[in-house]
UniProtKB/TrEMBL annotation, chain A:
Keywords: Membrane, Oxidoreductase, Transmembrane, Transmembrane helix. One of its GO terms (molecular function) is dimethyl sulfoxide reductase activity. The chain crosses the membrane at residues 7-30, 36-59, 80-100, 106-126, 138-155, 161-177, 229-248, 254-274. This is Dibenzothiophene desulfurase. It comes from Alloyangia mangrovi. Its EC number is 1.8.5.3. The keyword Transmembrane applies. PANTHER family: ANAEROBIC DIMETHYL SULFOXIDE REDUCTASE CHAIN YNFH. Pfam families: DmsC. GO terms for cellular component: dimethyl sulfoxide reductase complex; plasma membrane.
From TrEMBL, chain B:
It comes from Alloyangia mangrovi. One of its GO terms (molecular function) is 4 iron, 4 sulfur cluster binding. It holds the Pfam family Fer4_11. SUPFAM superfamilies: 4Fe-4S ferredoxins (SSF54862). This is (Fe-S)-binding protein.
């Protein structure tokens, strides 16, 4: 799939934002007063800039609000609702923090809604049977793991961050290895796509058009396949190994800007790989 | 609503004969021609006469080479357009309700004025049947020429999809696939019509008729072949004299 910058930014930033919001809302000693306001402002800035990036992916942006309508069947619509509900709940909880009377149950509800939003985002991709690498329960698990890790790192929770970095790294590496086999496991081949398997073994002879088209640009992105291993190693170093090493070396619980910058760069790279590696079955019709 | 209808009164669709398709692309041109003038917006092209032309098409013809276990390989021309699936994944993913399947005839359509151009339906379709119109910013797809098949201002014989009407090989058939007695259903029954990617669970309406086995030349004696052997191995007459003279030099 084409790794659109708008979608990479959307999933990375909103994942961080909702992850931070979840930590803010479920922590036992939430910040109060102006500190609460600053933390919430950071979380909302991340969430809203992520959502703005997702709106940039639409070609007809002026109709974006129509996306709220089909929540009964569409994960994209559910994601829009979940984000709105989370931000409204978070606003209520934030107000209670600002006033110095934290409504903890409202906080837990907000935290749950924040994770629900990340789940809906992941389900937009995981629901697609046409992309076997994504069509798996590990896709929402991985998105949630990244969001929780990023939130913990942002909120300066050293030990939870270290545990989550290790868990997310293990999950990510397994997803890469298992993901490489999912297209073969799906059973979709050029033979099933054309129904010509009973006559013999089919091979794409020539394409329907000499130039490129929307399908090839959007769904048959093969550039990443050459450098996969190098990029995966780099992503693991940036997102997990280096931040963990830095956290262990300095052992400070306050906001560590370098750690965060490394982590965000690693997540951006892993999200680029998430899209760029994914094989859409339509590529089979083109012999790719 | 992007819920799929629980039941369609009819299921219109195409039956495509891979045995007779000659790969002339007339259906591609007829489709583009009709749908660029009959839809709310034309099927746009980008850089059509430039170095990297690209455009929106609702029907495309691939070509495959099928190599059997024994014998010669065979070329199969393979037209592909929307299959108007019973469990259309493109419909349920749509966040706005622009994508829908009609309960009365099973046709899958896009309401252009509701489309936000997110592209998720094209991702959900395993067949690559939907293409984004880059000029209009909305998704385009085969309408089964819904504006022809019910159009009473057209002569009776033109009330079928443009691709079917134009096919010079008779490789495309249009009809109600939910009626077991319809001509297309009987054709599917007789020729062993098949679904594309059945494992994707889309239950496509369009069916493909597999190519019939070809003749093979191995072990065959052609009665006319001996008469086609060269009659004169050695040149005679003037040419023969030149040949002999040149050889003596």
């Amino acid at each position: 799939m084409h790794p659109a910058p708008s979608l990479i930014l959307f999933t990375t930033l909103s994942g961080l934002g909702f992850g931070l919001l979840a930590w803010l809302c479920v922590t036992l000693s939430p910040p109060e007063g102006m500190a609460a306001l600053a933390w919430l402002a950071l979380a909302y800035a991340l969430c809203l800039s992520g959502l703005a990036a997702s709106a940039m992916h639409l070609i007809r942006r002026e109709r974006a609000l129509k996306a709220f309508r089909q929540w009964r069947t569409s994960w994209l619509s559910r994601e829009a609702w979940a984000a709105l509900v989370t931000l409204l709940l978070g606003g209520g909880f934030g107000l209670s923090l600002l006033l110095g009377h934290p409504l903890l149950p409202l906080g837990w509800l907000t935290g749950l809604a924040a994770l629900g939003t990340v789940f809906c985002t992941a389900m937009i991709y995981a629901q697609l049977k046409s992309v076997p690498r994504w069509h798996h329960g590990s896709t929402p698990a991985l998105f949630l793991a990244y969001a929780l890790t990023g939130g913990a790192l942002l909120y300066g929770q050293t030990w939870p961050t270290l545990v989550l970095l290790a868990l997310t790294a293990a999950l990510q590496i397994w997803v890469w290895i298992d993901g490489d086999r999912r297209l073969a496991r799906s059973g979709t081949t050029l033979a099933s796509a054309t129904g010509l398997g009973t006559e013999g073994s089919p091979r794409a002879l020539f394409p329907p058009h000499t130039g490129s088209n929307y399908l090839l640009r959007e769904m048959v992105f093969v550039v990443a396949r050459r450098h996969l291993l190098k990029l995966r190693v780099l992503a693991v170093l940036l997102a997990f190994a280096l931040p963990a090493a830095l956290l262990l070396a300095t052992a400070v619980s306050y906001f560590n800007f370098i750690c965060l910058a490394l982590y965000v760069a690693g997540v951006l790279l892993s999200r680029w790989l998430f899209f760029a590696e994914a094989e859409h079955v339509v590529g089979l019709y083109y012999g790719r | 609503m992007t819920d799929l209808p629980s039941h369609t009164e009819r299921q219109l669709g195409l039956v495509i004969d891979l045995d007779t398709c000659v790969g002339c692309h007339a259906c591609v041109v007829a489709c583009k021609g009709w749908n660029t003038q009959s839809q709310p917006s034309p099927l746009s092209d980008q850089d059509p006469r430039g170095a990297a032309p690209s455009g929106t098409f609702l029907n495309r013809v691939h070509a495959y080479e099928v190599t059997p276990q024994t014998g010669a390989a065979q070329v199969v021309h393979f037209p592909k357009s929307c299959l108007h699936c019973a469990d259309a994944p493109c419909v349920t993913v749509c966040p706005t309700g622009a994508s829908f399947k009609r309960a009365e005839d099973g046709i899958v359509l896009v309401n252009e004025s509701e489309c936000i151009g997110c592209g998720l339906c094209a991702w959900a379709c395993p067949y690559g049947a939907r293409e984004m119109d880059m000029a209009e910013g909305v998704m385009k797809k085969c309408t089964l020429c819904v504006d022809r098949i019910y159009n009473e201002t057209l002569p009776e014989q033109d009330r079928e999809p443009a691709c079917v009407r134009t096919c010079p090989a008779g490789a495309r058939h249009f009809g109600d696939l939910s009626d077991p007695e319809s001509a297309v259903s009987l054709l599917v029954e007789a020729r062993g019509g098949m679904d594309l990617m059945p494992e994707q669970g889309t239950r496509p309406a369009n069916k493909y008729l597999p190519p019939r086995p070809r003749d093979s030349w191995e072990g065959e004696v052609d009665l006319l072949a001996p008469w086609l052997e060269p009659v004169a191995e050695e040149p005679r007459g003037l040419l023969g004299w030149i040949d002999r003279t040149l050889a003596r030099l």
